[in-house]
Design a protein that fits this description.
single chain; 171 residues; alpha/beta; six-stranded mixed sheet; 49% helix; 21% strand
């Protein structure tokens, strides 16, 4: 999907130019496996180096959690596909900070707006931005008749307390 990829990268660049400033970024950090391609495309376009983080250090080779050259004191921009309940972003933040770098922001394509990652980033004083969210997705899907009102409400109920809701559903 080259057109969609171009749209995502250009949307990230617009946000960077208007809210962070390219001059305030030394390196792009892909968060988890999904962030590798996003970071690569963005790094290429901005002519910035990239690294990527794993959720934990490898148990073989050099045992690295961060792949690539990360210089102490650099200003890093994190890139992920989603802000959800996964802990990839908090783990990446910890790894980058432990390597002596400042995190100037975190960008994602999508957020389910559960507040878990967003609250973490707020507490860490890290600016964040996502291109779209679950509410928008549900509204468009309903408008295009891809889902029913009942299905939309079902998902909205889940967002109110996903951990408890998932447990109830499994029982």
């Amino acid at each position: 999907f080259p057109n969609e990829r171009k749209f995502v990268v250009n949307s990230f660049i617009d946000y960077i130019e208007n809210s962070i400033g390219k001059q305030n970024i030394d390196i792009i950090v892909g968060v988890g496996h999904s962030g590798i391609s996003l970071a690569t495309w963005l790094g290429e376009k901005l002519k910035l180096p990239i690294v990527y983080t794993r959720s934990s250090a490898k148990d073989h080779g050099k045992g690295k959690q961060i792949e690539g050259v990360l210089k102490t004191g650099c200003k890093a921009l994190l890139i992920s596909d989603i802000m959800s309940t996964e802990m990839d972003i908090p783990i990446a933040v910890k790894a980058i900070k432990e390597n002596g770098c400042e995190i100037v922001g975190c960008l994602a394509i999508f957020s389910n707006k559960l507040g878990i990652i967003e609250n973490f980033l707020k507490n860490e004083n890290i600016k964040f931005h996502y291109l779209t969210d679950l509410e928008t997705l549900l509204t468009v899907a309903l408008m295009k008749k891809k889902i029913s009102s009942e299905e939309k409400n079902y998902v909205i109920e889940w967002t109110k307390n996903p951990e408890v809701w998932d447990k109830i559903r499994k029982d």
